[in-house]
Hints:
With 353 residues, this protein is of the alpha/beta class. It has two domains: 5-278, TIM Barrel, CATH 3.20.20; 289-352, no CATH class. The protein has helices at residues 18-28, 56-71, 91-107, 126-138, 158-163, 170-177, 198-208, 261-273, 279-291, 293-301, 303-309, 317-326, 331-340, and strands at 5-9, 33-38, 75-80, 111-115, 145-149, 183-186, 213-216, 248-251. Strands 1-2-3-4-5-6-7-8 form an eight-stranded parallel beta barrel. Helix 8 (261-273) packs across helix 9.
Amino acid sequence: MTAQLGTIEGYYGAPWSWQARAETVQALAPHGYRFFLYAPKADAYLRKRWQEDHPAETVQALSRLAQHCKSLGVVFGVGLSPFELYRNFDDAAKAALARKLAGLDAIGCDMLAILFDDMRGDLPDLARMQAGIIHWIAERTKAKRLIVCPSYYTDDPVLDRYFGRRPERYLEEFGERLDPAIDIFWTGEEVCSREYSVGHLERVSTQLRRKPFLWDNYPVNDGQRMSQFLHLRAFTGRPASIGAHLAAHAVNPALQPVLTRIPMLTLAQSYRLGDAYQYRAAFERAAVEILGTDLARCVNGDIYSLQDSGLDRLGKQAEKLRERYARFDHPGAREIVAWLDGVYRFKDEWLEV
Length: 353
């Protein structure tokens, strides 16, 4: 069974251009990517400045993107992170949230994600407070599908180290309290999970009382360590058998909008081919489709340098790679050159939005 595929633009760092978003939607739609969620961490008006209206030019760009998605049969949505709203959900906060929801409705937001990730979570009654906010939102949004990212969206203990120890039975209580019509994001056994098994997803489904809406953190490469690498290889560890155990499968893409399409196409192949899927062949097919034959051949030959070595360890080879890819008049090659030039390096201010 093929899971419903989509993109969630949920990375830290320099956001894609509006043209890159539109082109990515158009490139992926024929391969079964049926929704696009706009939620870049760099958009402060969706995060710490969520109570403020987006600038008029951003509203216009979002409206155009929503219409573009609709024309391709792709559902458009937005991920809103009302920063620590559950600490003080008073009348003023409700009024600001109602105004925000009305603005998103006007843009054409058919899918709405409320994201409580990367916020302090070691609070009493966290599940009750968050479920109450989501139900309040559900009564007011016109979005046809509502998804929530819990504060603890993975088994990974790294969240407890950064955001406080998770309340006991947090997931179970959240699942019990939340209307079953509302989806819940889950990244897996880790923030960036290497694989997903049926056994794991069945266990999480029991905890959440619904199938998880998978937030897959590959090929995203936005962290201090990950920005050292280009994530180009085909998906592995996502057998087609997991599709029956998911509400949907959302991919968090890389900072490079053209190159990220290569692995994203292979995920669609994995679901389509099932047990016949071969990740190396899938990569080669996808690379040719996105980059063309000659550039794909170069990337294939340099895959270890681009994905495994790490930018700081390339040494003199970096200049050779730069010369090689600068010869190509292709946006994918330009992304490789920009990566070699350090354009995508992690910056501390990415975390401050």
